[in-house]
Amino acid sequence: MTQINSALLVMDLQNAIAGHLGDKQALFPYKIALEAARNHNIPVIFVRVAFREGYPEISPMNRMFARAAQYGGMTVNDETTQIHPELAPQPGEPIVTKKRVSAFAGSDLEMILRAKGINQLILSGISTSGVVLSTLTEAADKDYQLTVLSDACFDPDPEVHRVLLEKVFTKRADVVTVDAWVDTLV
């Protein structure tokens, strides 16, 4: 029987994107998940989207990211791409930089997961219809066991968020609240 080794992915909780949450109270579920993972020695991996100066990774054909290249910002050293200070990584917690929507796209995430023997991912992030959906789909195709923390995901469209959590994600992952996940760790 295969041993289950989990990691918590905290995706796109960077300054430019976390601002979509509104108030600091919205960060509470992410903080609880981080604290629980750290207290139970579950590796935490932060994922952000950022680009090199001059945006060599962005094609003008890419509808989502071409605006970043056109208007600036979102570079690896830009304040907008740094992890939100309320959720600051601790020493030894990697920050993976991706180049597209999925946490795997253009990043070294899979290399880190293999090196640590991780075969189960606990997903959290902004947005449900963006990084969470794309990462879940790719991770399921790569045979990872998946859990989605429903209240540690956010989407600007509440109906899209609901449909993904209740109808789409449940076909490939366990969908639970942060509290329910924490209860399984005790």
From TrEMBL:
UniProt xrefs under InterPro entries? Isochorismatase, Isochorismatase-like_dom, Isochorismatase-like_hydrls, Isochorismatase-like_sf
Q: Which SUPFAM superfamilies match?
A: Isochorismatase-like hydrolases
Quote the CDD domains the UniProt record gives.
cysteine_hydrolases (cd00431)
- Please give the Pfam families that the UniProt record associates with this protein: Isochorismatase (PF00857)
What would you give as a GO molecular function for this chain, any one?
isochorismatase activity
Q: What keywords is this UniProt entry annotated with?
A: Hydrolase
Q: Where is the Isochorismatase-like domain?
A: 6-179
Return the similarity comment.
Belongs to the isochorismatase family.
- The name this protein goes by in its record: Isochorismatase
Organism whose genome encodes this protein: Paenibacillus rhizosphaerae
Species classification: Bacteria, Bacillati, Bacillota, Bacilli, Bacillales
